[in-house]
Known about the structure:
The chain is of the alpha/beta class. It folds into 2 domains: 2-150, 2-Layer Sandwich (Nucleotidyltransferase, domain 5), CATH 3.30.420; 200-387, Nucleotidyltransferase, domain 5, CATH 3.30.420.40. The protein is built from 15 helices and 14 strands. The protein has helices spanning 64-75, 110-118, 127-140, 160-163, 169-175, 184-197, 252-260, 264-273, 276-281, 286-294, 298-322, 332-337, 339-345, 358-361, 387-400; strands spanning 2-8, 13-19, 24-32, 39-45, 53-59, 88-95, 106-107, 146-150, 207-212, 216-222, 225-229, 327-331, 369-370, 379-382. The strands form 2 sheets. Strands 5-4-3-2-1-6-8-7 form an 8-stranded mixed sheet, sandwiched between helices. The chain has a 6-stranded mixed sheet with strand order 11-10-9-12-14-13, with helices on both faces. Helix 1 (64-75) crosses helix 3 (127-140), helix 10 packs across helix 11 and helix 11 packs across helix 13 (339-345). The longest helix has 25 residues, at 298-322. The structure holds adenosine-5'-diphosphate (ADP). Adenosine-5'-diphosphate is lined by residues 213-215, 242, 285-287, 332-334, 337-338.
Amino acid sequence: MKVLVINSGSSSIKYQLFDMTDESVLCSGLVERIGEDMGSLTHKVAPDTDRADRIVLEQPIADHEVGMRLAIDLICGEKGVVKDKSEISAVGHRIVHGGESFHHPTLVDDSVMEELAKVIPLAPLHNPGHLAGMRVARALFPTVPQVVVIDTAYHQTLPPKAYMYALPYDLYEELRIRRYGFHGTSHCFVAKEAARVMGRPFEEFNCITVHLGNGCSMTATENGRAVDTSMGITPLEGLVMGTRSGDVDAALHSFLHRSRGMTPEEVDFMLNKESGLKGLCGMGDMRDIHAAIAKGDERARLALDVQTYRNRKYIASFMGVLGRVDAIIFTAGIGENDSVVRSKSVENLERFGVKIDEKINDQRVSTPLRISTDDSEVQVWVIPTNEELAIARETKALIEA
Ligand code: ADP
């Protein structure tokens, strides 16, 4: 069975075609700068093998339909990895925000499209691009089942005490203002992987998953169900990210309006694009920050300290949420590669049963690695995330059900 995974953004489309018999990637690609004067498409054949090949097209790409057609022509046909569109059994779509309507991966029909359109006010930067991609994919593959795998779905099991903000209740009733949480596909994937490698049934598994990429979030999972998470109504709340502030005092908007005359839009832009690691030291990439620290850059050190301290505070608070923690799991760009961040994020947690082996922690592998000591009550793992594979698996499972 071959599953095409599509992540359609406002001006880009990412795709991967999986052969689900061995979960290998047959091809992947990125269509960029849709709607601009000049667009591009980078298509990779068998990207994870030594037969890897690349095709790059530079041309104007007027809209999602043009972009998707270009991609499909490279995937299927004479020189494609499949000879005909009919070889593709299902399409899985990555969706950022499903509001409160979606708790599981769902087969796409007109009512699903309508529900996702209703959630646009909660995800104005993401859902319109997803819908554009879904419309085109449905037109190009009219008889192929299509599935939405939604980032907010995993966190729909949060109890009200965790998802409600302490605000006037009518804001929830009228506008559905609440904590939704994001990166759910990744949290769910690495939590299940951890249970699998530890030989534990997921339904009895308690863990804290720490996703540290450009965006950063943390989720507490109890008995295989998410019970709390750091991101909120938008992906701004919680941890310190590449350019996002994470938690700040909610009075900041009005304070900056009074003191600097900033508009709500300007404050939003600052908190999302000019804050986080970048705001503190001018660099949003952790690799640059380490290089700067090595040269004695104090601001870079401060950025590292602020991020890892926030991680530690959240890990400790989620330990309080769960009581029993079987595993803490680090994942995504920083979580998978940065032993210093991992080590500093669990500093001082020894008395809570968290001990890591610094020698093992320093190893760099691309498979699950336990970095805690043998006598650590809580196991600590590095588990590579793979959101596209997670979407392909969920899509396959749903259409086979
Ligand atoms: P995204 O959230 O965009 O999917 P990733 O999960 O790819 O992001 O993470 C990107 C971040 O991972 C980069 O900004 C960088 O800070 C960090 N990163 C990647 N490789 C390393 C590394 N070897 N050491 C430290 N940080 C790394």
